[in-house]
Design a protein that fits this description.
Elements: H1 10-16, E1 24-27, E2 34-37, E3 49-60, E4 64-71, E5 74-81, H2 82-88, E6 95-100, E7 106-109
Antiparallel strand pairs: 1-7, 2-6, 3-4, 3-6, 4-5
Length: 110
């Protein structure tokens, strides 16, 4: 499975009433993630979260594109520029890694 890392404050832990092994929902704004083509699992980056999967859908607009990624039990949708989709030559079925910082992960108690 995938482990998602979130950097939250002690105050947030108290306010949510979080305890070890509690179930949570991790939320990341679609514009806060980047996509690397291919398997970037060995890539050295400061971001704590790297989720590899396959592109299942690309919806391009004039400026922005929505890219859906199937990473097994995780389904991710990332918003990147249409120019980035073209430069990466992204297409359905491509292996990609979605990368996002721990500080961009919000938690909700399940």
């Amino acid at each position: 499975g995938h482990t998602i890392v979130s950097a939250i404050t002690n105050q947030a832990i108290q306010e949510l009433g979080l305890k070890k092994n509690d179930s949570v929902i991790a939320l990341v704004k679609a514009t806060e993630a980047i996509i690397a083509k291919g398997d970037a699992g060995a890539m050295k980056v400061s971001a704590r979260n790297k989720v590899s999967g396959r592109v299942t859908d690309i919806r391009k607009g004039p400026a922005m594109a929505s890219v859906s990624v199937d990473a097994g039990e995780l389904k991710l949708t990332t918003a990147i520029t249409s120019v980035a989709v073209d430069e990466l030559q992204l297409k359905q079925g491509d292996q990609v890694t979605t990368i996002f910082k721990a500080t961009e992960v919000m938690l909700q108690k399940a």
